[in-house]
Design goal:
Elements: E1 13-16, E2 29-32, E3 45-46, E4 65-67, E5 73-75, E6 77-80, H1 96-107, E7 112-114, H2 122-132, E8 140-145, H3 153-164, E9 169-174, H4 183-199, E10 202-208, H5 212-221, E11 228-232, H6 242-249, E12 252-256, H7 260-263, H8 271-281, H9 285-294, E13 299-302, H10 307-313, H11 323-333
Parallel strand pairs: 6-7, 6-13, 7-8, 8-9, 9-10, 10-11, 11-12, 12-13
Antiparallel strand pairs: 1-2, 3-4, 4-5
The chain binds NADP nicotinamide-adenine-dinucleotide phosphate (NAP).
GO molecular function: oxidoreductase activity, acting on NAD(P)H as acceptor; oxidoreductase activity, acting on the CH-OH group of donors, NAD or NADP as acceptor
Domain NADP-dependent oxidoreductase: 80-332
Family: Belongs to the aldo/keto reductase family.
Length: 352
């Protein structure tokens, strides 16, 4: 049976039924609310094609996918291999605990796995993929080249592939712009990324922690527009016009540290609102925090070593916030500023 995909403008999502549902597959299509002035220029919301073939619908991932400007699809909820699973010495022997935790993530229904050279745990990520027993094509694997080290891009990429034990990644990102002394360095690095993309070994290329001036520099010479910018994004760090800039240029946004207001930045002005909405939807405040990101058409990356929490997070595909609730969280969130990562790179009052 052919799969009917919907091409729609993506912004806030309203759930609609999939047009055709092949057997043994659960597809979920999200359509946007129209008339949203901040709607991204890129198109489509898609059913997510991940899940164990032949398993029952209840065991399937119900995570929606987002179509990127290069035509590829990214699952909108990803499992982070950074932060808690960061390995300080990348040359240390394989850390079985990390492998176990990532396998737990996979078995809980997460197939979009976010890795990076600097997390030091690409071998553990690769091992977890192997131990899951699932075929490569079930996964959406991201890795990133260090954003602080000056190095040969192709060599770094090939080393990442080797450590992962893969012959391609779904997404390769420049982790941060901080290695660059000026726009020319960013432009040269992006040209390297384009060459990797052309080789077919990275299906999608993008950036992370780039601000407007960094993106403007890249766009001046880019042949391939970055598909995505992975940024710290939560109600206490909404960045000033950055997401709108992405939308205007067809660049998707991916949010890390989405639980900041619930976990790290408490107490805060949103505590009561999260509690109120969690009660209304029968979920946890963390799940409200994730949904706030998704309801803006933004990919969300979280992580946990707690199985119950991981399974709970999957509930985000079963409800959605109203546009008024999204707006309420955004408005209240602006009362507080909090940056959890890369603080040494920004002035204390810089929320760009
Ligand atoms: N590109 C970049 O520069 C960059 C930077 C940072 C992160 N990232 C990526 O984004 C991923 C997610 O980032 P993040 O870890 O900051 O995401 P997050 O989803 O905001 O936080 C996840 C952390 O919160 C904890 N947590 C969740 N619910 C909790 C609760 N109710 N009480 C206490 N603790 C709770 C989890 O611990 P438990 O294990 O106890 O659940 C986990 O350590 C990373 O793993 C990485 O892949 C990228």
């Amino acid at each position: 049976m052919s799969i009917a995909l919907r091409t729609v403008q993506l912004a806030n999502f309203t759930r609609i039924k999939a047009l055709s549902i092949p057997e043994n597959r659960f597809y979920q299509v999200f359509a946007p609310l129209s008339n949203n002035p901040t709607a991204p220029a890129f198109q489509a919301s898609l059913p997510c094609k991940i899940g164990k073939t032949g398993s029952s619908q209840s065991k399937m991932s119900q995570i929606p996918g987002l179509k990127l400007n290069d035509g590829n699809e990214i699952p909108m909820l990803g499992y982070g291999c950074g932060t808690a699973r960061y390995k300080a010495n990348p040359n240390a022997p394989l850390d079985q605990e990390t492998v176990k935790t990532i396998v737990l993530g996979i078995n809980s229904g997460y197939y979009h796995l976010d890795g990076a050279e600097v997390y030091g745990n690409e071998p553990e990520l690769g091992q977890a993929i192997k131990e899951s027993g699932l075929p490569r094509e079930k996964f959406y694997i991201t890795t990133k080249i260090s954003g602080i080290k000056v190095q040969d891009t192709k060599q770094a990429f090939e080393l990442s592939l080797k450590k992962l034990g893969l012959d391609y990644v779904d997404q390769y990102l420049i982790h941060a712009p901080f290695f660059a002394k000026g726009p020319e360095d960013l432009q040269a690095k992006w040209a390297d990324m384009e060459a990797i993309h052309a080789s077919g070994k990275a299906k999608t290329i993008g950036v992370s922690n780039f601000l407007k001036p960094d993106l403007e520099a890249v766009l001046k010479t880019a042949k391939v527009v970055p598909a995505i910018n992975q940024i710290e994004y939560h109600p206490y760090l909404q960045h000033d016009g950055l997401v709108e800039f992405h939308n205007k240029h067809g660049i998707a946004t991916s949010a890390y540290a989405p639980l900041t207001a619930v976990v790290k930045a408490k107490p805060g002005p949103l505590d009561g609102t999260y509690e109120k909405l969690a009660k209304k939807y029968g979920v946890t405040p963390g799940e409200i925090a994730l949904r706030w990101v998704l309801d803006q058409g933004i990919v969300v990356l979280t992580t946990s070593s707690n199985e119950q929490r991981l399974k709970g997070f999957l509930k985000v595909s079963q409800f959605k916030l109203t546009s008024e609730e999204v707006e309420e969280i955004s408005k209240i969130g602006k009362q507080k500023n909090f940056r959890g990562f890369w603080q040494d790179k920004f002035a204390a009052d810089d929320w760009s």
